Amino acid sequence: MFGLSKRAVTVIGIAAGVLALYLLGNGKHPSDAAEPAAGVSQCRVTVNADVLNVRAAPALDAPVIGKFVKDAETEADKVVENGFRKIDENRWAANEYLTPKQGHDCGT
User: Fold this and answer.
1) Taking the model in full, what pTM does it have?
2) Among 18, 31, 42, 74, which residue's CB has the most CB atoms within a 10 Å radius?
3) Which of 104, 103, 75 is nearest to 91 (CA)?
4) Residue 22 is inside which H or E element, if any?
5) Tens digits of per-residue pLDDT, 29-63?
6) In the chain, where are the structural domains located?
7) Distance between CA atoms of 106 and 108, rounded to whole angstroms?
8) Exposed (0-12), middle (13-18) or buried (19+): which is 20, by Cβ within 10 Å?
């Protein structure tokens, strides 16, 4: 294929997959750039796992519908159910791998 060895094609494929995972699952959105206004106590968390699955429901057997990579930040809800924190409607992540950012109210 284009004069590349099988090994080179494999390495390129793996690199493309890792890049896609990073770009699609880093949890960063254009609106994330702004810090909350003083006195606002929104819940914002940082991912402390290498890769964290986002599930459709707060259960280990719920379908994986997305992923976050280490150090990704996202807004979250104060709701924690069955060890999962609600990230958004029908989006849950294991709370043990989410660290609330300083100054943000993530209490349940």
Assistant:
1) 0.62
2) 74
3) 75
4) helix 6-25
5) 444 444 444 444 589 999 999 999 999 999 999 99
6) 6-100
7) 6
8) exposed
